[in-house]
Amino acid sequence: MTTLLQVKELRVYYRTRRGVVRAVDGVSFEVNEGETLAIIGESGSGKSSTVQALIRMFPRNVHLVSGQVLYRGVDLLSLPESVFNREYRWKKISIVFQSAMNVLNPVMRVRDHVSELIQIHTRLSARDGLKMAEELLPKLGLPPSVLNRYPHELSGGMKQRVVILLALLLRPELLILDEPTSALDVITQANIMNLLKRLKWDYKISMIFVTHDIALASDIGDKIAVMYGGQLMEIGDADTILREPRHPYTRFLLESTPRLRGEVKLTFIPGTPPDLVNPPPGCRFAPRCPYASDKCRSEEPPMKNGVKCWLYV
Ligand code: ATP
Ligand code: SF4
Q: Quick one: which ligand is closest to 299's CA?
């Protein structure tokens, strides 16, 4: 399999009044061509900060960005912004966020969004862009008339499909989806998930799918990466992670997902996620881990064979 993306020791820190937030702290993973990586973890574990760094989206208070994001061997983090914009953003990598409303301008029809995207990012004409959009519409289960509608004339599910249409318009090789269905009702969510699986199949597109829902991750992910406190705790083949989770945090996550195990009772993880301004020394999960030893509390475990835990070193 050919490697499309290699993320090495990625760090993203933010400046705040309380101090420096270590939102992403030494994250490494790979995505192969045609493969879907699902990134899961509780709220605040650094999932969004990780994927936003892949397309160089940083908030104003970013304090430090380090490591490498190698796309077919080219480090995206060290490219000049103009080159990244011209050659990568939307063309090779695009992103879909949870809220379509943040992307769609309420006073622009769908066709205007298409024209704008084409004109800003390519040398093609608006008419060519509309043709490309028309080809994609049936794949997304959207009628041609959608092009003439304003965002407020579309349902939540249709809006999210339109956002996916825009993300796919320039035929990127890597589509990042950051909680793309969490603002939608369950039926619409299932429709969008089926659509994504079809797109993955039809276009052999690589995806990174961010979610806090392990059931969605297992539905779409070939690989699953589990994040906790700004770090990756476990990564591997989805079936293996679901059948034989090794990291104590992954085991907790699975036990708290009744839909997968047929259990009715939810197991809550005692304690709270770490403060990323002052993360615990040693293993970040130690304050909540029933297996924590003195070593766990003082020395950070290495990531070894896909798991970051002293029990597996
Ligand atoms: P969620 O599922 O809630 O979106 P997440 O796993 O995607 O969470 P991030 O949004 O990446 O996590 O946040 C990681 C940490 O960084 C959190 O502690 C969050 O509060 C903090 N954070 C995110 N953005 C900023 C920012 N611009 N300034 C300061 N802290 C931030
Ligand atoms: Fe638990 Fe120690 Fe493993 Fe961390 S390193 S998850 S504290 S056993």
A: 2
pLDDT tens column, 6-48 = 999 999 999 999 999 999 999 999 999 999 999 999 999 999 9
Ligand nearest to the CA of 12: 1
The model's confidence at residue 218, banded by pLDDT at 50, 70 and 90, is very high
Please answer whether residues 48 and 178 qualify as being in contact, where contact means their C-beta atoms are separated by less than 8 angstroms: yes
Domain that holds residue 8: 3-92+172-312
Q: Considering its fold, how many domains does the chain have in total?
A: 1
Cα separation of 99 and 40, whole Å? 18
Does 233 contact ligand 2 (Cβ within 6 A)?
no
The residue to mutate among 228, 253, 269, 291, having the most atoms of ligand 2 within 8 angstroms of its beta carbon, is 291
Cα separation, 309 vs 313, whole angstroms: 7
User: Going by C-beta distance under 8 Å and a sequence separation of 6 or more, which residues neighbour residue 83?
Assistant: none
Nearest CA to ligand 1 atom 9: 46
Residue 9 has phi, psi (to 5 degrees) of: 50, 45
Phi, psi of 34, rounded to the nearest 5 degrees: 75, 5
Counting ligand 1 atoms within 8 A of each CB, the residue from 12, 42, 45, 49 with the most, and so the one to mutate, is 49
pLDDT 10s digits, 136-185: 999 888 999 999 999 999 988 899 999 999 999 999 999 999 998 888 88
- DSSP 3-state assignment of 234? strand
* Phi, psi for residue 173 in degrees, rounded to 5: -90, -25
HSE at residue 13, side-chain half, CA atoms within 13 A, is 17
Residue 104 lies in a domain: no
Which CATH number do you get for residue 11? 3.40.50.300
